[in-house]
Design brief:
Largest sheet: none
Order of helices and strands: HHHHHHHHHHHHH
Strand content: under 5%
Radius of gyration: 21 Å
Helix content: over 70%
Mean pLDDT: 85
Number of helices: 13
Distance between the termini: 38 Å
Low-confidence stretches: 1-9
Structural class: mainly alpha
């Protein structure tokens, strides 16, 4: 076996933690929308997200303090932390407000559009090539599905449109943050980047709490809301982020992209089973179009290239 490895005939086996980390990221991202809904049931959204960030910052800070991980503190690092804060503050704060109007599964589905929006932004900000035919088709499919999802929610009346607008703005800011981060060249540990971003973000969440609420009615908080805040602080804001960067180092991008396809399905199922969220037939059809668009966006060009190569070989 050793000779085969030395001659390059066999690939290096993946570390045992890779599949575990992959499943952990899927589970954490699938449960995060429901955690947001539960945490803001009896706690004001600004306080719920502020407590979540404080918990994550304290634990992350302790890890930095008692490990050999270096936290860069220079202009380039500040730029990275600021760009990260756009997605953390804008994405999360708007999502917490939206949780009062939308089901957790719908929020997860809409966040699944982030790769497509990131691709559009990357063309403008990073000078990446324009979409080919398959990705344009994928974009049309996904946004057609988004229209169906929105119509299903708006048909229910009430103020669902407020939640839809808030989540779509959150997805845009989250995607913008990810694209801007790519413009910063800095070798940094995932835990350090997380803690640095939290240092920049947490004061902004505190300011939002002062502006929108500034009260502390602890006696009205439910145990479920408090438990959800701790869960999101430890897993959603820290472990999930670290796990995502870990699998990104060991798996190719197309494999990691499976997370964005699996997560909405799990989140919608979990919301229906645990939180009694209604999934209508129209919503399922819209979700199908969105997921089909995401799948085509990730792998459509490769499938088209393989078909062309197969056709060329048959002609030869």
């Amino acid at each position: 076996m050793s000779s085969n490895l030395q001659s390059g005939q066999m690939p290096q086996p993946l570390p045992r933690l890779v599949p575990v980390s992959f499943m952990a990221v899927v589970l954490i991202w699938s449960t995060t929308p429901l955690g947001i809904v539960w945490s803001s049931e009896t706690v004001h959204p600004t306080m719920a997200v502020l407590l979540r960030m404080v918990i994550a910052l304290l634990i992350g800070g302790l890890i930095i303090l008692f490990s050999n991980i270096r936290l860069p503190w220079n202009r380039t690092a500040f730029k990275l932390y600021a760009f990260s804060a756009i997605g953390i503050v804008g994405g999360m704060l708007l999502s917490y407000f939206a949780a009062r109007y939308l089901a957790s599964g719908t929020m997860s589905l809409l966040f699944g559009l982030s790769p497509l929006i990131s691709g559009l932004l990357a063309q403008r900000l990073l000078g990446e090539p324009k979409f080919g035919v398959m990705r344009i088709v994928a974009l049309v499919l996904a946004f057609f599905g988004l229209g169906i999802v929105c119509s299903a929610k708006l048909a229910l009346g009430s103020e669902a449109w407020v939640g839809l607008v808030l989540v779509l703005c959150a997805v845009f800011l989250f995607s913008l943050s990810g694209v801007l981060i790519k413009t910063v060249e800095l070798a940094i540990h995932p835990i350090a980047s997380t803690v640095g971003a939290l240092i920049f973000s947490t004061p902004l969440f505190a300011l939002a709490w002062l502006l929108f609420d500034a009260s502390l009615p602890i006696d009205t908080w439910w145990v479920r809301s408090i438990a959800a805040i701790f869960y999101l602080g430890i897993f959603g804001s820290l472990i999930g982020f670290i796990g995502y960067f870990y699998i990104l180092q060991h798996l190719n991008a197309s494999t990691v992209a499976l997370v964005t396809l699996i997560t909405p399905v799990f989140a919608m199922t979990l919301g229906a089973l645990v939180n009694q969220e209604h999934i209508s037939q129209t919503l399922m059809i819209g979700a199908g179009f969105v997921l089909a668009g995401l799948g085509l966006y990730q792998w459509g060009d490769k499938l088209l290239a393989r078909r062309r190569a197969k056709s060329a070989s048959q002609l030869n």
